[in-house]
Queue: 3 jobs
Job 1
Amino acid sequence: MMQRATSLVAVNAPKHVAAFSKVAALVETPRGGPSSGSGAKIAGRSRFYKAVGIEAEGDGYCITLDGKKVRTPSRSLLQLPTKALAATVAMEWDAQREVIQPTTMPIMTLASTALDHWDFEFIIEELMKYLQTDTICFPVESQHQEKLATRQEKKWQPLRKWFETEFGGELDINYGTITKLQHDAVAVNNVRTFVDSVRQ
């Protein structure tokens, strides 16, 4: 059972926060086993704790399992900014049964990822890779699948047009191939500038 303090926080938290662990507990582990990432080190482990609690820590709150503070996979203290958020993560831990399933702990996973991967330059580089793999840049060839090609053109062309207007350059399009895209350099730089501005 969670400590009484945690339960009181959950009662006072928004309804969607209080209900979150109930929804998360219904999520099944996908085929192929638990997902990688922040839960990789605990996936499949038997529940090794009895009590889940919350403690004030600096300017935020941390989660405790039998009095021991939870840490991220990189061994950083899992310190959260609000009681409501800490209560949500605590409920995810408390909802675990005999075996810990990280896939039923999405807020814990997001919090760990945010704390462990704070290198903005790394994040920007990872996001920029999606420009090379976006589906709308790889339509089928009309001579092979005319009906599908027509539908793709109807749905995707407006998106490509918006992108080109918004970021000032054309997208490279590969029909029926998966070779590396060569987008307009101006557009790529403008996208990078936009992504970088989001962190301000």
Note: The beta strands are 52-57, 60-65, 68-69, 79-80.
Job 2
Amino acid sequence: MKPAFELLILAAVGALANKENCLSGQYTTSGECCQQCQPGEGVVTPCGDTQTECAPCLDSETFSQNFSHTDECQPCTICTGLLVMKTPCTDSNDATCTCKYGYYMNTLSQRCEPCTMCLEGHGMVFSCELDHDTFCEECEEGTYSDQESLRDPCIPCTSCDDSSVIHPCTPVTDAVCEDEEEEEEEEEEEEEEEAAVSFLSLLDLND
């Protein structure tokens, strides 16, 4: 009796070990562990009276990215509208889409939204990317931006250290400086005009 009892115990332990090694956790009607289809394959005939039957997914059309004894190949995602393909669909991975240039994915609405343009007097601090909008900031003193832009920051104003300022720098316009050569030319013209007036005055006195 003792050997028979030991054999019964060993058989029970063996059956339990086989169940623990069954990755699918499911069995055929005959007690065989259901096999799993690997990534890139889908279930054609599910496990039951017979063993699981798998078939390859069609590259660029269907995919399966997990081990499974129940899942068929799934159709690939098609990027449409404002979405463009980021990575293509393979037999084991779905396609991924991203918003086209000039748009970003709004995490709340899960829709592509147009990137915000920084207005005049504002510069780009963080550019519009796949997952967030443009962040703009008003130009600080000494900087300006004279046009709307998606990517341009505020730029430093022109320095008029060695010449007089015609127009000071504002958040939307650069400083305009008077050129030294122009100043000299204007001074020479004024001197010539004064000399001409003086000469004419002398002629009038002589007459």
Note: The two ends are 158 Å apart (CA to CA).
Job 3
Amino acid sequence: MTIALIRALDSVTKSLLDKIPNTIATSDGRYLATQINKKIRKFIPEVNKSRWADLDLWSEEPATWSSSNSSLKLNEKERKKQDIIYELYLTEKHHCQVLVILQQVYQEGLRINGIIDEAKRNELIPPVLDALLDFHLNFLRQLKRKRLETEIVDSVAEIIYSEFEKGERNQTAVYAYTEFCSKYDQCGRLYDEWMIKNAELRKFFDQYEQDSTYKGRTFKMCLLLIAQRLTKYPVLVEKIAEVESGSAKEESMRAHQAVKKFAMHVNNEITKIEVNKRWDRIRSQIDHSSKGRFGPNDFFTYDDLILNGSDEERRIICIEVIIVLFDDILIMLTNSSNNKYVFLDRGSGSTVIALNKLLVREVPRSTKLFFLLSDDPCPDLFVVSFASKTDVDQWKKAIEMSKNMAPKH
């Protein structure tokens, strides 16, 4: 009787339990654990790391030097100089902010949240931000130290020259900028594509791009500001040189040449990459059976693009040169291993060119000129890249003027 009653109660209890929903079922438990784990791993950007804590990157500063030093009695020229030096300092600080945001907010956020894998992260954000930060934090640190020494800064030319011409971080920064700027367009395209296809990535970027903490530094804005930064230094340093005089002016002009050379070095490296990419596209479409005449009795084939005796391909070479224009000739020089200028070796191509045999043609929508040498029986053609469109226009005009004035031989 007792056993029967217990069994009856068990069956009633079981039927009741079957009708009562579990508070946490297996699937619910997994979901809850996932949510708790996500909250524990919530991403918080580390924008105040010790690496740059001494620079007070996020502190507010006056817009101009004059606005916070109006009581100092200075002539207009000196006040203008202080404003430009301060502008260099302040824009360098803003540039460091951009680098930190791109690295600590966007790059680290994508990594910690596991939104895309490492290979895709490196496609979207070139992995060179550490090198760029190293270069620019050091430069900013020196500018800040100089400003703290005195209210009126005598010169920053030596700081600029030492960092951009011969600093220990110089070559690494050139490589980093080359890598970053050469992939700028690709990064922008991938961002646009993935924002459409990947909802989680879109949600991540929307969250941080709309966060007022980061002062409107959207992902694409960060890319643009970093890619443009090297174009700003020559303008600012030239402005400083314009208000200097005597030996100080000479130092500023030397600093100006250093920042121009740095930017041109990066530009030349990017040009090499672009030229080789174009050549790869052309080479892939060359008919291997076609032949080209090479001299009166010789032919050149696709296989001849391989250097004799090796598997190495011929390379398209970009060389940094010094061009000197005389009233009847143009010469091309380059740096030798002992830092002396030597005549550029172009193999059988001329590097001393009679102006009456030189034709100059502009390459549309670029900072390049075609140099065509009508030197019978060996005509020649090569491309010269310049730092800016202004330089292209000046050189084209100067060559044409010299040709018109050249002695008739």
Note: Residues 246-283 form the longest helix (38 residues).
